[in-house]
Amino acid sequence: MYTLIHQDPRFYLVDKHPGVGFHREDDQPGLMDALREGLGDSALWPVHRLDRITSGLILVARSAEAARALGEALAEREMEKYYLALSDRKPLKKQGRVAGDMAKGRGGAWRLTEGRENPAVTQFFSFSLEPGLRLFLLRPRTGKTHQLRVAMKSQGAPILGDALYGGSAADRGYLHAYALRFELDGERFAFVCPPAAGEKFAGESCRARLEELGEPWRQPWPGA
């Protein structure tokens, strides 16, 4: 269900495996159940969440005080989050910014609207890996439900394996929480976690491109 990446007296950082739900569903234990059992720690506070299809980095606080501090950093947009996605379709633009209000659609999906009252904002770069396959480096500047999945669809490049948003069938949903940077109690943390699951993520072209790109915060991201 997960791989432990880093342990601190104030938090755990784990790599959630794809296809794992966050909370218990009927008789199926969720990630938080697995963490409490596997880490032997019943007092855990999730700082943020990932969709079932999404793998990658999740911060879990070990005290209410740490949860409050990390939650405030997230709310104030002081925590940097970076994601990877793959699509087998060419986007409307190769890099840039996607912004718009989110509205509920059908079947649990969301859609991007032209409104700007409370917009979801995503920045991205994309790179050709091979014919018919493109890598996206995504930086969400807000934290809306399904934000990245909707942003990708709005660019005409739904995420590979994301059936809800029209992505082509694949062995997994190709969205991965790749990197985190944040500060806690005056201490700076930076983590990069390459995806461990998925045939396309494991491909030579993808691994070579990630090595070439280096740390995601070193890309020329414009201001929010």
From TrEMBL:
Secretion signal span: none
InterPro entries: PsdUridine_synth_cat_dom_sf (IPR020103), PsdUridine_synth_RluA-like (IPR006508), PsdUridine_synth_RluA-like_CS (IPR006224), PsdUridine_synth_RsuA/RluA (IPR006145), RluA_PseudoU_synthase (IPR050188)
Domain Pseudouridine synthase RsuA/RluA-like: 11-153
Domain of life of the native organism: Bacteria
Family: Belongs to the pseudouridine synthase RluA family.
Protein name: TIGR01621 family pseudouridine synthase
Species assigned in the record: Chromobacterium indicum
